[in-house]
Amino acid sequence: MTAAIDTHAHLYFDKFDADRDAVIERARTRGFRHVINIGCDVATSMQCLELAAAYPGFCYAAVGLHPNEAKVSEAELDDILAALEGMVEAHPAAVRAIGEIGLDTYWDRAPIEDQERAFRAQIELARRTERPIVIHCRDAWPETLAIIADAADGLCGVFHCFGGTPAEAVRAVELGWFVSFAGNVSYPKAQPLRDAAREVPLERLLLETDSPFLAPQPKRGQRNEPVYSLHTAATLAEVKETDLDTILSTTTANARRLFQLPG
Ligand SMILES: [Zn+2]
Ligand SMILES: [Zn+2]
């Protein structure tokens, strides 16, 4: 069985409280070697660390402040940054990335100035802690790509749940970053997303679920979980005109390289 890695999940959600062990066991049984859980604020970043401790060597963590949570004062942001940095220092083996961070004008939950301040501050956090970055972006692709080009020189990361145009996917690749597509790439009306995926070389693709959100087409509307990313991988195999094994082995190698995960 070809190894797989779900590089973006939120298994700390209470939707998994009843059967989290079973969800992880299903993933292991189907060849998944790791799941990276992604924090959205201090509390959920802590929960990602708890999952890393509960499933050692299988679950890893990213810690960060999501743009939708960025409506905070400068003093509050300083406290949040200190807490996140403390997590990296206290749990260096568990924390594989800073994220998810970025810009989101779709939900409009935080003023864009606050989002950009938190985003730029966390790019610097990634630089200080020598961690890759997990980008969340929704309806702000030109602005997000511009900030990365401007402020993240020498850093690397992934644009998770890519939702930009094919030209923006090309730009992300030009920046030297990875691009990850969630289950929505498999939806019938998502041809523009598949056109964007076609522009991303295999060596820059990652696999993700964004569990519990965005279950791929055969499971659409249900709670998403790591094994369902095999459906997303099947869509990517069609788009890239290759086979499922090639998608899995390549995205697994890519994830190990970016997040420095054990082989
Ligand atoms: Zn996201
Ligand atoms: Zn997410």
Quick overview:
With 263 residues, the chain is of the alpha/beta class.
> What is the number of strand segments?
8
Q: How large is the radius of gyration?
A: 17 Å
Reported by name, the CATH topology is TIM Barrel
Question: What small ligands are held by the chains?
Answer: zinc ion
User: In the CATH hierarchy, what is the architecture at level 2?
Assistant: Alpha-Beta Barrel
Overall tally of structural domains: 1
Euclidean distance between termini CA atoms: 15 Å
Order of helices and strands: EHEHEHEHEHEHEHEHH
CATH level 1 class label: Alpha Beta
> Strand content of the residues, in percent?
15-25%
What does this protein look like?
The structure is a single chain. Helix content is 43%, strand content 17%. It is of the alpha/beta class. The chain has a single domain, classed as TIM Barrel, CATH 3.20.20. The longest helix has 18 residues, at 112-129. The mean pLDDT is 98. Bound molecules: zinc ion (2 copies). The site of one zinc ion has 5 residues, from loops.
